[in-house]
Design brief:
By secondary structure, this protein is of the alpha/beta class. The protein has a single domain (15-277), classed as TIM Barrel (Alpha-Beta Barrel), CATH 3.20.20.100. It contains 10 helices and 10 strands. It has helices spanning 35-51, 65-75, 95-109, 132-143, 157-167, 185-193, 213-222, 226-236, 248-255, 264-271; strands at 8-10, 16-18, 22-23, 55-57, 83-88, 114-119, 147-153, 173-177, 197-201, 240-241. An 8-stranded parallel β-sheet has the order 3-4-5-6-7-8-9-10. A two-stranded antiparallel sheet has the order 1-2. Strand 1 (8-10) and strand 2 form a beta hairpin. The termini are far apart. The relative contact order is 0.14. The structure holds NADP nicotinamide-adenine-dinucleotide phosphate. Residues 23-25, 57, 120, 153-154, 175, 201-207, 210, 225, 227, 242-247, 250, 253-254, 282 line the site of NADP nicotinamide-adenine-dinucleotide phosphate.
Length: 303
Amino acid sequence: MTQRTIPTIRLNNGVSIPQIGFGTMNLSAVRDNSPESHEVTAKGIAAAIAAGYRHFDTAQMYANEKGLGLAIARSGLPRNEFFLTTKLGNGNHRPDDVRRSFEQSLVDLGVEQLDLFLMHWPLPTLYGGDFVSTWRAITHLVDEGLLRAAGVSNFNPDHLQRIIDETGRVPVVNQIEVHPYFGNRPVFAACASHDIAIEAWSPLGQASVLADPTIADIARKHNRSTAEIVLRWHTQQGRIVIPKTATPARMEQNIGVFDFTLPPEDLAAIDSLNKGEAGRRGPNPETFAWIPTSSNPTPKINP
Ligand SMILES: NC(=O)c1ccc[n+]([C@@H]2O[C@H](COP(=O)([O-])OP(=O)(O)OC[C@H]3O[C@@H](n4cnc5c(N)ncnc54)[C@H](OP(=O)(O)O)[C@@H]3O)[C@@H](O)[C@H]2O)c1
C-alpha cells in the first residue's frame, strides 16, 4: 500500500480536508444497488486506497455508498484515516427526508459520523424553491455531532447568499463543475467572499480537455501527462479536486501531482481556454430538476 503525504485545506470551521479525493461516480456502470455493482465499486475503491487515496466522494444518487463502505471495512485501516463525503439525493430535500436519508447513508457507509455532507443540487424550481429549510436540516446534523462539516454543491452566488442570509450558517465547501473549458468564475468570487472552499467536480472535464493542444504543449514541457497538468492547475490555485478513474495506473498518476509547479504563464494559458457557458458539461443548477426513480436512476448529464 502506497503511503503518501497529501496537502490538506483547512475549511472555515477548522476541519481539514485532503486536497485530492477520489470521485466514485459511475465506477460501476449501473446504479442498481445490487451486490454485483457494490463489488465493482469496492474493487475500484480498494485500488484507490492502495494508491494512497483516503478522501472519497460519493452521493446518495450514485447508489454506490454500500460499495464504498465495503472497501473501507475491508481495508482494515482506522476510520479516522478516511475523509468521506456524501451528498443529499434530489428526492430527499424535505427536512425529515434529510435526516432519514443521512442516517441511511451512515448505515450504508458503515460509519457513525460523516466528514462532509453536501446538498447535491439547489433545485430552485422544486420544493416551492425552498432549499433553505433543507440547508438548515443539514446544519442540525453538525450540531448533533453526526456530521463534521456541512456544505453545498452546484450553488450559484444567489443560492449561497440566500442560505447564508436566512440561516446565518456558511457552507464549508461548494462543489461545482470546474475544468479548463468551464471556468465558473462568478461562483469563485462569491465563495472567496465567504471563505467557502471550492471543490472541482469533473476536474478533467470528463476527459474532454485531455487532448487539448495547449495543455499537450505544457505537458510535453514538464514531461507529465495532460491529466497531471490539469490537476496541478487546479490544486496550485487552491481548489480541492476529485478526479474519477477506474484505471489503477491513472489513480497513481492523478494523486502524484504535488511534486512539481506550473509557472504563471502556464496557469494563464490554461485559464485562457475557458469557453464560458459553452464549456459546461453537466446540468445548469438554475434549471436542473431531476429526481431519480428506480426505473430511471441515472441522469442524462450530456444529452
Ligand atoms: N456534485 C456534482 O454534481 C457532481 C457531478 C459530477 C461529478 N461529480 C464528482 O466528480 C467526480 C469526477 O467527475 P467525472 O467522473 O464526471 O469526471 P472527471 O474526473 O473529470 O473525468 C473522468 C474521466 O477521465 C478519465 N481519466 C481520469 N484520470 C485520467 C488520466 N490520468 N489519464 C487519462 N484519462 C483519465 C477517466 O477514465 P477511466 O475511468 O476510464 O480511467 C474518465 O473517463 C465524480 O466521480 C463525482 O464524484 C460531482
